[in-house]
Amino acid sequence: MKTKILFCVVLVGVLSACGGGGGSVSEAALAEACNDTVNWTSEGCDCMAEKAKQDLSVKGQQLLYASLTDDAERAEELAKSMTLEEATTAGMFMVNAGMSCAMAQQE
C-alpha cells in the first residue's frame, strides 16, 4: 500500500513538473518547451510563458505545451474539449504573445 501511495505522489509530481496531467502547466515548463522548439531568445520564451499563465485557461496552457512539445494527439484531444472562446484565444496566443514580447524587449 505504501508503495502505491509513493508511486502516486511521484507520478503527480512528475506530471506537474513536465506540464502533463490535468492541472495548469508551470511557467518553467512552458519556457523550457519554447526554448527547445521556437527560434526565440530565452527572454522571449520567459515572457511568453508568463503571458500564457496570465492569459490562457488551464486547457489553453496545456494545448500550448502540447503544441510546443509536438504532442499532436494531446493537442487534438484538448482542442476538441475546449470552448470556442478558449480555442480561439489559445490559437491566437503565440502570434499575439510573440509580438507583445518582442515589443517589450525593444523598450
Protein described:
This protein is mainly alpha-helical. The protein has one domain. Helix content is 80%, strand content 0%. It is built from 6 helices and no strands. It has helices at 2-18, 27-37, 42-55, 58-68, 72-81, 84-106. α2 runs parallel beside α4 (58-68) and α4 (58-68) packs antiparallel against α5. The radius of gyration is 15 Å and the shape is globular. It starts with a helix and ends with a helix. The model is unreliable at 1-20 (pLDDT under 50).
Write the layout of secondary structure elements.
Layout: H1 2-18, H2 27-37, H3 42-55, H4 58-68, H5 72-81, H6 84-106
Q: Main traits of this protein?
A:
0% strand, 6 helices, mainly alpha, single chain, 107 residues, disordered N terminus
What's the short version?
This protein is an all-alpha fold and 107 residues long. The protein contains 6 helices and no strands. Helix 2 (27-37) packs across helix 3.
